[in-house]
Amino acid sequence: MSNTSRGFTLIEVLLAIFISSLVLTSIYGIFSSVSQARNRFEAEGDLYHQARVLFDRIGGELGSLRFSPLGKGAVFSSGTNLAGETFFEFNTELVSPGLQQHGGISRVRYEIRQNEETADLLRSEQGLLADLAASEPLLFIAGLKTFQVRYFNRGAWQDSWSGQAPPQMVEIFLELEIDDRLIPFRSSFVLSGVRG
Q: I want to staple 148 with a disulfide (CB 3.0 to 4.6 A). Which of 100, 143, 158, 173 is the partner?
């Protein structure tokens, strides 16, 4: 009897290993790129969520502008503080839950604090119907590359606002960075008038 079974040659085994490694490398590359894309989309989704929360909050507050019952200060003002950082503040009826028990009008202040390469947007609030100190500024959005506020009144845009009456429109522009790319966000708010 002759033995007709034969094994694989060394070249066939090496060729099979080479083809298997090519297939596995391709599969790993696909999974890796899908994972990176998922992580990038999640990070971008977080940035869009932060911007949406900011614009929703500010839009609601600006839609509820009120005169101060105490007659102190302008309804809406903006400018720069002593450190040259931008701020804007206004009276609103949309107050934080902790201040609702003291009355329905607050003075809300948004201000920028510069870091080395980025800036943070801080928010503080002071109840106007109670003798309360302003809250400590709380971090609202971190890592801003750009934050600009413009004010529209009587056909012209202005970079700051002062006066007893609020502007007709407020535009907020900000840029957040992800993976060395800047993502811009812009929203405008029409101020329909101040109620007393």
A: 173
pTM of the predicted protein model: 0.74
Cα-Cα-Cα-Cα dihedral of 75, 80, 86, 87, to 10°?
-20
Residue type, 101: Q
* Average pLDDT per consecutive 10 residues, the chain (196 residues; last block may be shorter): 72 93 94 91 90 92 76 74 86 72 76 90 83 78 90 90 83 90 93 63
Q: The dihedral of CA 55, 58, 61, 65: what is its sign?
A: negative
For the chain, count helices (H), then strands (E). Answer: 1, 8
Model confidence pLDDT, tens digit, residues 180-190: 889 999 999 99
DSSP E strands: which ranges in 29-180?
A: 76-80, 86-92, 106-114, 119-127, 138-153, 156-158, 169-178
Instruction: Judge contact between 61 and 190, C-beta under 8 A.
Output: no
Q: What is the pLDDT of residues 69-94, one digit of tens each?
A: 555 556 888 888 888 888 998 888 88
Sequence-separated (6 or more) residues with CB below 8 Å from residue 74: 162, 163, 164
- Beta strand pairing call for 181-190 and 169-178: antiparallel
